[in-house]
């Protein structure tokens, strides 16, 4: 009796590599030239890669594991930042001004009587500085933990990031951006890592 499984696996493997390579290429473009369209294209290609990886009846050949991992980490690192930016834009628009060091400018709590009465504007301060670098490290760690089959590490990643940002989350704007940006970044990185985990299982 004819068994179509090898043919299906061959097609799924080819589609997996093509979609993953496409997602990696568009993720790099989205990182260099942030546009929501590029993020959606990369997200679509990543979704196709996830479906192909889950459709495989056996794992891909051992020699292809490192290539899949490199592609997935590329997607996680480069695509996560524009993905988080797109999520923030959808959720909050341009409601806060960007700072000079990658953070956002928020108004400090009034400390003088004049500031409390609205006679003098309260000073602004930049919070969530260095978010791009922190995001890159976070996504490398998240995708790597999924590839390695150790998702428990995600709790450590979130805890370290939360503790490091704790003192900056007093303002509502900072809390909202932190939650939305972190979740979008982690979901993106975990999806990229999950492709490899499913393909080499």
From TrEMBL:
Keyword vocabulary terms for this entry: Membrane, Transmembrane, Transmembrane helix
Protein name, as recorded: Uncharacterized protein
Ranges that cross the membrane: 12-32, 37-57, 63-84, 140-158, 178-200
Source organism per UniProt: Agromyces salentinus
Phylogenetic lineage: Bacteria, Bacillati, Actinomycetota, Actinomycetes, Micrococcales
């Amino acid at each position: 009796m004819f068994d179509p499984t090898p043919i299906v696996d061959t097609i799924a493997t080819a589609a997996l590599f093509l979609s993953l390579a496409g997602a990696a290429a568009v993720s790099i473009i989205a990182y260099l030239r942030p546009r929501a369209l590029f993020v959606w294209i990369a997200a679509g290609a990543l979704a196709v890669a996830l479906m192909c990886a889950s459709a495989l009846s056996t794992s891909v050949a051992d020699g292809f594991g490192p290539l899949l991992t490199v592609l997935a980490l590329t997607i996680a690192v480069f695509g996560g930042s524009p993905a988080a930016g797109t999520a923030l834009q959808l959720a909050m628009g341009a409601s806060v001004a960007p700072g000079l060091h990658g953070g956002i400018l928020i108004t400090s709590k009034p400390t003088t009587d004049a500031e409390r009465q609205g006679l003098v504007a309260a000073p602004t301060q930049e919070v969530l500085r260095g978010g791009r670098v922190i995001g890159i490290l976070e996504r490398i760690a998240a995708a790597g933990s999924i590839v390695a089959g150790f998702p428990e590490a995600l709790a450590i990643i979130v805890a370290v990031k939360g503790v490091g940002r704790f003192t900056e989350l007093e303002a509502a704007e900072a809390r909202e951006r932190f939650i939305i940006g972190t979740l979008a970044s982690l979901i993106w990185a975990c999806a990229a890592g999950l492709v490899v985990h499913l393909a080499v299982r």
